[in-house]
Model the fold of this input.
Amino acid sequence: MIDDSQLAAVPKRINREDSFAFACHKGVSCFTECCRMLELALSPYDILRLRLSTGKTSTELLSQYIIVEQDPGEPFPRFYLTMVDDGRASCVFVSAAGCTVYADRPAACRTYPMGRAAQKTSDQTVCEYFVLIQENHCRGFDEPARQTPIEYTADQGLSLYYHFNDLVAKIILHDSVGDGFIPSKKQIDFFTLALYDLDRFRVMLKKGEIDLLGITSCANDTDEQLLEMSINWISKYLFTQFN
Ligand code: SF4
Ligand code: SF4
Done:
């Protein structure tokens, strides 16, 4: 027989203005228990930020901490944070004292227990909605603090993560992809370079090894400016016939 604790929590849609009770802190009995057995997908901005707390380059993060998967028929690879083989499949960044990259933790860690979905509308804008995932093991729901999705987004520093995720979503959800576009191996390599290996992309820019396709760029741009440019660049590279 299956009891309630074995059932996966069903996400419930929540309005932007509706408040929910939740707080996570070192005093909860389940502290860090959710940092295990995860399929933690990383976005380009997650990797940009993880470089800061780890002191690693994007190239080092990719080779040391990230698993790249691409199922047959999927146009683009997916990037997951490594879980370590400690018998509990713990996140590579969790310690007894908490998250060792807390200031730069990925969006999925910031947003939990909320989820945000972005949908592209017919006029190509991206609209968002929120869901709440109430899992039995999470004691954060017993806490008195209440907040709306908008307040939680601000509290968790999610705005820039959402901004960049929406830009990347325009590539993943591009009409050409819906029409069956399958990138070549070279295009997938450039997708990985431009979005997930910003440090190597910057070096190649400085050496003049990237054809900018008419996009203005400066190799001394900030990381955020460079990521914005590289997202534009890979979109142009993939979906116009320069290659
Ligand atoms: S990155 Fe930090 S918050 Fe996220 S799962 Fe790992 S230890 Fe937990
Ligand atoms: S299970 Fe919930 S309350 Fe416990 S550490 Fe994770 S997010 Fe915080």
